[in-house]
Design a protein that fits this description.
The chain is mostly helical. Helix content is about 70%, strand content about 0%. The chain is built from 3 helices and no strands. Helix 2 runs antiparallel to helix 3. The radius of gyration is 22 Å and the shape is elongated. The mean pLDDT is about 80.
Length: about 100
Amino acid sequence: MRLDASKRAHLTCHPSSSCRDGSNLRAFRTLVRFTAAMFGVPALTMMLSYFFVLPRVFGEQSHSDRMTLAGIAGICSVQVVIVTYLVMAFSEKAPHAHTGKKGD
């Protein structure tokens, strides 16, 4: 027996809550996605810059110089993820507010 979306929402949400439109689920998915990006993107950026980009661009450097520059690249990538999250957060539509009127 399958329930349609409105009945499933009714079973899992309190009538006065705002989760009927799925905004909580979307917010949770966005949080998980950007949390993973905050860990993965800087680590990948540091690894790629340390092993591939910096040796080809600057030639032979000491280990500490390459690690410092790779760390700076990782920090910059964190800033890119944060700015992307902020742009996405401010550009999404606001959820419909429940006014409590009988016609809603």
